[in-house]
Amino acid sequence: MKVEDLLSYNKAYNFIEGKRYVGKTYSTIKFLIEKALVKRQGFVYVVRQKQEKTDNIFRNICEAIFFNYFELEDVCLSKNFLKVQHNIIGRRVSLVDEIKIGGYPDVEYILFDDYKSYFYNDLKEPDVLLSIYDKIDYGRKFVKLICLGTNQKIKNPYYDHKEFDIPNANPNEIGLSKNTLFINLEGELLR
Questions:
Q1: Surface-to-core class of residue 113, CB atoms within 10 Å of its CB (0-12 exposed, 13-18 middle, 19+ buried)
Q2: What is the mean pLDDT of each run of 10 residues along the chain (191 residues)?
């Protein structure tokens, strides 16, 4: 299954679940970088905790993607920004950062990795993520939110949130509601 095929349904909210190590994060960030380089539309990578902004996960994934797929010069990778030829194409923010309304006119995608967590299951978290989405999208319903998670069986506040209205779907089948796409990649790789 390809990321672009899932996003072709043109839903504002896209929930992709699957086992660990099936390529969800890597393939999605690769897709977002490709889109940013072609369309000059950037993306925001959301992390849960502010301290996650100090690790190198975002930087390491972007670095591996550039090393394996792109031969570009003038690429600047930091913990919180990805710049190509002096243009910011990727930013990392946390759920607790203050986001400026309308301050991201060049952003087409928001990626929230690991939206399902045993360790952090705040019932208000979906509202915080929606607030970030609304500030970046600025009422356009143009920005696509991509939430990646493992297909573990845990109670999750996103499933019960009215705005997301996550539909039920059999494994490897796409479930659709008004604004939401959901898929559980049972054993299938994301490319």
A1: buried
A2: 92 92 88 88 85 70 83 76 84 81 83 74 83 86 90 79 91 94 82 71
Looking at residue 53, its pLDDT comes to 60
Asked whether the CA dihedral 136, 132, 44, 86 is positive or negative, the reply is positive
Domain that holds residue 105: 3-185
Residue 62 sits in a domain whose CATH number is 3.40.50.300
What residues does 42 pair with on adjacent strands? 107
Which residue matches tokens 């972007």? 62
Show the tokens assigned to 91.
Answer: 């930013």
d(CA 46, CA 43): 10
pLDDT at 27: 92
Measure the CA–CA gap between 157 and 129, rounded to whole angstroms.
Answer: 12
